[in-house]
Model the fold of this input.
Amino acid sequence: PVGCSVYRNMKVAYPSIYDPDFNGGNVRVSEKGTATIRVRAPSTFFVWRYIAIPHINMRLCKGSSSFKHKLPDAVFYFGSNSTWLKQRSSTKAKIQVVSAAPYAARVASTTEARGPRPVAVVVAAHVHEPLGPPTTTTTAMTETMAQVLIGAAKNALSLDALEFSPIYECFLLDQFFDHFSSDCKERCPGASEVAHGQCARPATEAAHAELSATWKLTISCSPGLECWEDQNTTLHRARLAAASHLTIPFQEVKVTVGNNWAGSSRRLLDTRDLYLTVSAKTQRWTQSKGNQQLANFLSNHEVAGEVLDVTVVQVQIHSGNGIFSNKKSMSELNDPYSPAYDALKPTPKSADSTVLGFLTPAAIAGISCGAIAFLILVISAIICFRRRQQKKAREAVAQGKIANNINNKDPDAKTESNKVAEEAPEATEHHATI
Done:
C-alpha cells in the first residue's frame, strides 16, 4: 500500500457513482462462473485511531436487493508486497481470486477529481501478526499531506464493524442515530430521548429491568473450517442489532455466545449448535414487556445468520442451563469499538433544552419570519406617528407666525374680550371685589 492515499474517514473516501473518480461498479459473471474486475489502485481511510488496510469489497448481487450496512461477501486486501482474500463464512457466494496483477493497458485518467481530498499518504508499511490491535505511527502533519507509517496486520482488530455500522455512520455526519427509523437525524423525535448520541426510548423512574433471552442456533459448518470467525465484529454487530430491536442504546446491551464443541469430533459433523444470549439492564422497559419484545429478536434463521454472520439452519428459544465449555461475551466494559463511538458521538444542541428544541426547523423558521415581520410593522408605525407629530408641530408654528403678522399690521385691533371689558368696566370691577 505504499503511496496509497488516506482520506479523513470512510464517508469521504467513497466517491459518488456520478463522480469521475468513482472506483466501483458491476461486472457480469460469465456462464463459466468467472469475472474480470479492473480497478484503480485503492485508497484507504482513517477509522478512529487506525488506518484501514487498502481493500476492495466484493459482493455477488442478484436482483435489486439492498446491501447497505451489510458485510460484503469477500474482501480483497492489499498488503505490503502481498494480497489476500478474506471470505465470509456465512455467505452463499463463494468467491475465489484466480490471479491478480497490474493492468498493463491502463490509461491514466485526465479528469480532475472532485470532492474531498486525501489528508495523508502511506510512505511505508510492515506486516506483522499481533495479538491485539494494530499499532499506528504517524509523522507530523504538513499543510498539504501527512506521511503515515502503518502496521498492516491480517489478524488485527477488524474495522468492518465500524465501516458497516449505521450508528457510526451517523456520528461521522455529526447526527443522531434514530433507533425507531434506523436513520440519521439532526434532532431526535419528540417521543424519544438522546442517550449516547442515539434516539432511544425515554427512561422512566422505575427500577432497572433485567431482560434476557437465549437462542439455540443450529449452524452449518463444513469439516475443517472455522465455524464462527470474526468474533469481535459479530459480537459488536449483535449488540447493535439487539439495541435497535429494543430501541435502546447499544451501551445497555450485552451479548454472549457459547458452545460445547470441545468434546465433539469436527470431522464427523456438518452442523453445530451455537447459543446466543442477549441481556439488557435498562429503565426503558418493564420486565414483562421488555422480555416479550426481546423474545421476538431472532424471528427466523435468516435474521439469526445475519446477526452472527454464520449459516443458520434452525433457530429456537433455549431454556437450558446456559453452561458451555466455550463462551465469549461483549458488553460496554470490553467492547473494543466503544471508544470510537465515544470520540464522535453528537451532543444535543443548546436549543434542545429550550422550547425551540421541540419544534421542527420549518416551524422555527416560520416563527423567525413572523417575528421579523412584526418588528418591521412596529418600526413603521413608530416612524409614521413621529412624522405626524412633526407635521402638527410645523402647522402650529406656522399658524402662530400668521397671528403675529396680523397683530403687527393692525396694532389698534382688539380682541372681542377686550371690547367687552371696555364697554362694561364697572361690571368688571364689581366681579373683581366679590
Observations:
- Residues 361-409 form the longest helix (49 residues).
- The first strand starts at residue 5 and ends at 7.
